[in-house]
Design brief:
This protein has helices at residues 12-20, 26-33, 66-75, 117-131, 133-142, 145-160; strands spanning 37-42, 45-50, 59-63, 85-89, 96-102, 105-112. By secondary structure, the protein is of the alpha+beta class. 9% of the residues are buried.
């Protein structure tokens, strides 16, 4: 809810009327979790906070380890976002088509032998990380030196081997 004392181009009455409306739309859900998010040491742990209008931010989550807090802060913006991919039974064979919305129409972009909706959840999170420099930076910050050093070597080898297609 808006604070009367906070500078805003929208009037308090206007924002109050908006707040009283149905909050079930997709833009509300995305805006609610959009961030920006940060991690701060608080109360014998690490708080995940969403930046607000200048008041002391209330923790949305708290963890004992900073790395865990960073991971949650990195994926919080996913809350409320529609998943880009979905599974539908394959029309002609055993398995499931992977579909996505492309210019307003569903398009099949792949196929899975088994129904694994948790795989789509994971891809949804990874796709977000690829689109959000701030979230990707938090995940990399949560990684250990050893993981980053090894990943750097692997990436260097992949880049030196050519375009990386078909190599794992």
């Amino acid at each position: 809810m808006c604070d009367r004392n906070t500078a805003n181009v929208f009037t308090f009455d206007f924002l109050t009327r908006l707040a009283d409306r149905d909050r079930s739309g997709s833009t509300f859900a995305e805006a609610e979790f959009a961030g920006p998010w940060r991690v701060e040491k608080r109360d014998h742990g690490f708080a995940v906070l969403q930046r607000s209008d200048g008041r002391r931010d209330l923790a949305k989550a708290r963890f004992t380890e900073r790395e865990t807090a960073l991971l949650f802060a990195a994926v919080y913006p996913l809350m409320g976002r529609e998943q880009r991919y979905r599974l539908t039974p394959h029309r002609e064979a055993f398995g499931f088509d992977v579909e996505t919305l492309v210019i307003g129409q569903l398009e099949t972009v792949g196929w899975l032998r088994y129904d694994h909706p948790e795989l789509l959840d994971a891809v949804h999170a990874v796709e977000w990380l690829l689109r959000s420099p701030a979230s990707l930076a938090m995940v990399l910050e949560a990684a250990s030196y050893e993981v980053l050093a090894h990943a750097g070597k692997i990436l260097g080898q992949r880049l030196n081997a050519g375009d990386g297609e078909g190599r794992s």
